[in-house]
Amino acid sequence: MLERIKNIIRYGIGGRIKRFCFRAYELFFPKYYIDKDLIKKIAEEFSLRDLTNKIIADHKAIPYHKTDNTLYFDNILSYNNSNKYMPDNSFFLYPPNVAVIDFLLKNSKKDDIYVDYGCGLCNLQIYLRRMGFENTFGYDNFDQIKKQTIEKFLSGYGISNVLLTKKGALKIKNRIASCICFFWNRIDKDLIKKEINNPNLQYLLLEYKYAPRYVKGFKIAGIYDNLLIVFKRK
């Protein structure tokens, strides 16, 4: 009974206090917002609604491996609660990834190298490639989904050089990196070390609920509320 009380204090009350402190701390940083007019313009310019319909259809037809996390991949729209953030969403994407698109459109050039850690089926990369971001890549450790499943899915989009191996991720000199739907501090330590010491890396985009509030060598430049924390190299 005593141990249970200790756990309640440690993870219940302590957790609420920590969240309150984080919220107070974040009041001092700029707020970023998804520009829905910009997203709508880009969606029309690159026929992204048509692309979304294809991605949804391909999701329904893809042959998953028995170890793939189909609970997530088969229910991505309801799982990620997209309509809460963008009722007229042009994308088949987890909302923090829409914030990534907004950030890239406003803060990067089309030839900038961008790497997404934990890319899954590479939906984000498919959209970005369609929009002209030809140097966008993804890395995954294949815990949630097999490499073969991702490659099979990508084959229908004429994309063959999106998925990086660990060796490739360690070698590439990207200007921007992101980590969505996973804790940044829990990805491969070699990759974290590489990015911290990567002189080319200027921005690190981390999903709000999985992001640390401190990254060595970086400062918080702004926050997409409940979606994304943008770190910029000091």
SSE layout:
Layout: H1 2-26, E1 31-32, H2 36-45, H3 48-61, H4 70-73, H5 76-80, H6 82-85, H7 95-107, E2 114-117, H8 123-130, E3 136-139, H9 147-154, E4 163-164, H10 166-171, E5 176-179, H11 189-196, E6 203-207, E7 218-224, E8 228-233
Descriptive account of the structure:
This protein has 234 residues and is α/β, with parallel strands linked by helices. It has 2 domains: 30 residues; 201 residues, Rossmann fold. The protein is built from 11 helices and 8 strands. It has an 8-stranded mixed sheet. Helix 8 links the parallel strand 2 and strand 3. The longest helix is centred in the first third of the chain and has 25 residues. The mean pLDDT is 88.
Short précis:
The chain is of the alpha/beta class and 234 residues long. Strand 2, helix 8 and strand 3 (136-139) form a beta-alpha-beta unit.
Question: What keyword list fits this structure?
Answer:
234 residues; alpha/beta; Rossmann fold; 2 domains
The computed structural class is alpha/beta
Q: State the low-pLDDT regions, or none.
A: none
Tell me how many strands there are: 8
Strand content: 5-15%
Inertia-based shape:
globular
- Please bin the fraction of helical residues: 40-55%
Distance between the termini: 48 Å
Q: Helix-strand pattern, N to C?
A: HEHHHHHHEHEHEHEHEEE
| CATH T-level fold name of the largest domain | Rossmann fold
CATH superfamily of the largest domain: Vaccinia Virus protein VP39
Strand order of the largest sheet: 1-7-8-6-5-2-3-4
Q: Number of folding domains?
A: 2
Look at the structure and give the CATH class of the largest domain: Alpha Beta
Residue-averaged pLDDT: 88
List the total number of helices.
Answer: 11
Q: Largest sheet at a glance?
A: 8 strands, mixed
